[in-house]
Amino acid sequence: MMLAKLINQKPYEKIEYMLHRSGITFLPTFFIFILLMAVPFVLYYLIFLRLFPDLLQNIKIYPIAVLSASIYYLSIFLFIFGEFVDFYLDSWVVTNDRILDIEQLGLFANTVSELDLYRIQDVTVDVKGFFPTIFRYGNVIIKTASGNSHVVFRNVPRPNEVGRTLIGLAETDRKFHLTQ
């Protein structure tokens, strides 16, 4: 119900797909986050426990080290939060009449594009690499008659199935618009 209001769903329109990027594509960002979280612990071990153990006894160095680590961790959390918002809020809604491309651009901006299904000229499925092949995700590129208008579903699960469904929906919608 909430999605219908968000996309201004028409009375005859039926939602076929609500697509998001595959969850496996967020793992590299998550691993970078874990690695960056470990950096202060490694630095603490090397500097304060191995190389200069008496450095923390200095009354000026300890608060500076704590403040620096706090700023660093807050920055890392802001980074992962921004990446997760971009990952999670990028979505594509496919109905029996149109495609809505909702792209999040940072924390406070997004772009919503709409494409009528009967205008689709070509659907290309692009699965490149070892992990996309194994985990079955890839890009679905939808082109229209105008050379500069296209929509890309990035890293969606089951791209071949989505591509076939889009072609079938486009043919059905084209027949409907030709009879009117």
How would the blueprint of this fold be written?
Elements: H1 2-6, E1 15-20, H2 27-51, H3 61-89, E2 91-95, E3 98-104, E4 110-116, E5 120-126, H4 130-135, E6 137-144, E7 150-157, H5 159-179
Antiparallel strand pairs: 1-2, 2-3, 3-4, 5-6, 6-7
Helix pairs in contact: 2-3
Descriptive key words:
alpha+beta, four-stranded antiparallel β-sheet, PH-domain like, 180 residues, single chain
Describe the structure.
- The chain is of the alpha+beta class and 180 residues long.
- It has a single domain (16-180), classed as PH-domain like.
- It contains five helices and seven strands.
- The strands form two sheets. It has a four-stranded antiparallel β-sheet.
- A hairpin with a 5-residue loop joins strand 3 and strand 4 (110-116).
- The chain is elongated, with a radius of gyration of 24 Å.
Gyration radius from CA atoms, angstroms? 24 Å
Query: Mean of the pLDDT scores?
Result: 88
How are the strands of the biggest sheet laid out side by side? 1-2-3-4
CATH architecture: Roll
Order of helices and strands, N to C?
A: HEHHEEEEHEEH
Cα separation of the termini: 29 Å
Fraction of residues in helix:
40-55%
Q: How large is the count of helical segments? A: 5
Largest beta-sheet characterization: 4 strands, antiparallel
Broad CATH class: Mainly Beta
State the domain count.
1
Q: Write the CATH fold name.
A: PH-domain like
Regions with pLDDT < 50 over 5+ consecutive residues?
A: none
How much strand? 25-35%
Mass-distribution shape = elongated
Count of beta strands: 7
Assign the structural class, choosing from mainly alpha, mainly beta, alpha/beta, alpha+beta, or little secondary structure: alpha+beta
